[in-house]
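User: For a benchmark we're assembling, each entry needs the component sequences followed by a predicted structure for the full assembly. Here are entry 17's components. Please fill in the structure.
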Amino acid sequence: MRYLPHSSADRRTMLASIGVFLIDDLFADIPEEVAAAFRPLGLPPKSEQEVVAALTDLSARNAAVEKTCFIGGGIYDHYAPSLVDHVLSRSEFYTAYTPYQPEVSQGTLTAMFEFQTLISELTGMDVANGSLYDGATAAAEAVLMADRIRSRGRVAIARTLFANARRVLETYGWASGTEVVELPMLASGRTDLTDVPDDVSAVLLQSPNALGVIEDLAGVKERIGDALLIVSINPISLGVLAPPGDFDADIVVGEGQPLGLSMAYGGPLLGLFATRAEHLRQMPGRVSGRTVDAEGKTGYTMAAQTREQHIRRERATSNICTNSALCALAATVYLATVGAEGLRHVAELNLEKAHYLADRIAEIEGFDLPFSGPFFNEFVIRPSEDATAVQRRLLDAGFLVEAPEGLRSFGVENGLRIAVTERRTRAELDRFADVLGGAR
Amino acid sequence: MKTIFDHPQREGIGGLFPELDVPRIGAEGLIDRALLRSQEPRIPDLSEPTVVRHFTALSKLNYGVDDGFYPLGSCTMKHNPKVNETLARLPGLAGLHPLADPDLAQGTLAFLYELSDLLSRIAGMPGISLQPVAGAHGELTGLFLFRGYFEARGETERRRILLPDSAHGTNPASAAVAGFSVSEIQSNDAGMVDLDALDAELDETVAGIMLTVPNTLGIFEERIAEVTDRIHAAGGLCYFDGANLNAFIGRARPGDMGADVFHFNLHKTLSTPHGGGGPGAGPIAVSEPLVEFLPVPSIEQNGEAYALVWDRPNSIGSVHSFYGNVLVAVKAYAYLLQLGDEGLRAVSEDAVLNANYLQERLKKTYPLPYDRLCKHEFVLSGKGLAEGVCTLDIAKRLIDYGFHPPTVYFPLIVREALMIEPTETESRDGLDRFAEAMERIAAEAREAPELLLDAPHQAPVRRLDQTRAARDLVLTYPFDDREGGELA
Amino acid sequence: MGYPAEYRYTKDHEWIAVEGNRARIGITDHAQSELGDIVFVELPSVGSAVQAGGILATVESVKAVGDVLVPFDGTVLEVNDGLESAPETINQAPHDAGWIVVLEIADPAVVDGLLDAAGYESFLAEG
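Assistant: Structure for entry 17:
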């Protein structure tokens, strides 16, 4: 085995120094009946070359990657600068563990501190953690946190949350005893906030929401009494959209994949989590804090650790330990590379191109856009013919869109959700519209 | 160390994204002005060479497995094969959208299905979910399954989870998030679950037990079957924390020990790297009675094709946005294919050999509170080495000798614990050099304790002031003090 | 550091200074030294009713959390706000300036059941 350095002679010498004769003697404590029940896999070893060939073959069977991607739903086909993967490939970062020993982890801890700062800036919040697993679990953690703060056992969520976030939230809520009530949707695709129950710990909105519509966050806080306002965001949209902090949000969560991560069939992802300073002690997840060393030099270490499971055990603010540190590093490098100017530019490209395509589709007979609310880079179209047939026609022309079933839970029986990123060219958008219009 | 916020900025960087190729309308024409950003975020605009040098400099302040010996107990910091990184970057895998039609994602679904099958057979348990993305996430998912199981049986009063006092902190925290209370069981003198203490806790309020096998002292519960039998007889379920699978992979299966849920740490046992704190992956294997409650979607084979199956009425729902950490899973899959049965058995053999070899040598210098054959790790104590010197000082001094320190102050049942896990990928020479360093440090503790108390001397920073970091929390860059701030 | 003779003590390492029906409560020198540098104190709200055995306050060091337990039923009359900005006061003066809470005692007789200084010191010695 290539990964094992011992020679047979090494093993013999080592066994002798331990004072046993056989390797098996080291396993004498495994009960006989357990050892006897063992069954091997029937798996012969393969060479590295064979394994690379086998997986390369499998990867070629993912026909979707050959198509031009118009799918969104929280994961988008963005361009990641080469620099991101270049930095991620440094093994000092990717072969390190959680930075328990800060003196040999200043790279990870400094980057984590930068990440916290960048996410706080982007969301307009005071503090962000070092990452959670993904956008869905970040939303679930936010709801649990809000219910710890307000203790009402109930939270209200917009109907227009991404379906996967909703599913995860309901599972966490069910187990922890937090009831989830739904806020209805207006014809515009925005959330109806006229009748928010007054006995909820929090109101969770997503903007842009699952239909692509940007919620009107102005004035929400005044309508929900002392319930906490949780907003789930798309980080790229915040290049042009006002951050939730401007609307007095208490917790901001989101899926960080657009910040330089590959789509990866949905994992690994990056859960973003930011809040106000007053709620810091209830925040889940790790944070890096600035301090000094014995000579007064600036350095970083994990801070506010008494919230965490390794100290507070069953009273911790979350059970999270391993998070998405390397993905957070990717987002940090992404934002450092694009800068504030680049972020605005890429956000504008998404916004303008999505509207260009939406406008073109709206002109096609037999298609309309059912929701009037403003959108960023994703919108819903409604064909008069069967949406599945439209999806198939687009696929035949080389365009990947999501199956219409995903929209049914939002009352859209026959629609398609279309996402447009900076990677889509005008030629692709025109061709896409032409295919919808009946061109072959 | 400078942060990205300390470098000189310049305007008009550009060059990453193309110019707009459709007619510009302008954000103000598309979205109400009240919803548009009025102030730029303070994200610096930096040239590419500045960014490259910044992050390269940061990387050099880190210590990874590729830099040297990393005996962090319970973390299994083994070598991370380089082919793992190559495979995770295959465009056909990395560029796949999770909402693409499964017919167009057959390659990925195929290996996820194959990996599930291998994990199921390694565990000796019939059901698998790849959704959990970390060990603690696996624990949480497993405990959700406990909830689902007892609710379906109408046994809603079973809300108590038993935990040995040597348990990892995520165990009680996961139990709490899943809506359970926790009762601690004391270990006996041999460091194993005390069966009398266990019996005293068993009643109809017990949902189950969470065990780590081998336990966090590196000791295999020799009476494991008795423990799990008693839990089952009392109507409870058994959760096995798989952090220590490296101790018996290829030789024994948790399913044969009575486990109902077992989580894998792919970033530990199966060699995918840890990434400086993630992403990991924490798939779970489950016993037959729990299969119906597993998260949706599951990945199933349908003739020649693989499908995502959502229609499972008793499922607890979902615990992740999609299907777990797919690009971590591919690394674990490749690792298993390369090792095969023979390689897996060799992994646990050398892991246990290395741990016993080091234990045997170091127990002559350091107290070993539980002195017996260990599995893949062992726990020394730094107590009483010399007046005024504690485990933390030993750990920091190891940095000066070029090693990553072991896990310290865990498990809680050993005072001043030093938990050492060498893994199978460390050479005999490497182990000897580590042992020599530990011996020299013990001598220094008596003869020149200041070398320990002031350590590290040879690190990017000297010992950091943890108290200040915790008391005066500075968690974001202090932009407002940039002018006057001291930024070494 | 000595344990004031006029105080009462619990086996959970709280001290109690009884002043009529008011009980001033803090953690003992032994408790602060076990915790190490204290970095944060979470205080109850004034006016809240508390029950024996519950958590009155939490005292955090870098890597540990100590619960200050309610020694007997009562109502919170005062809290030591100064600890919010200077938690290290508990390390520096655990038995006076580092006091945490003043409780109104519901039943003054309960105080008799607590340890005196000598009793607490021998409890510590048993270890």
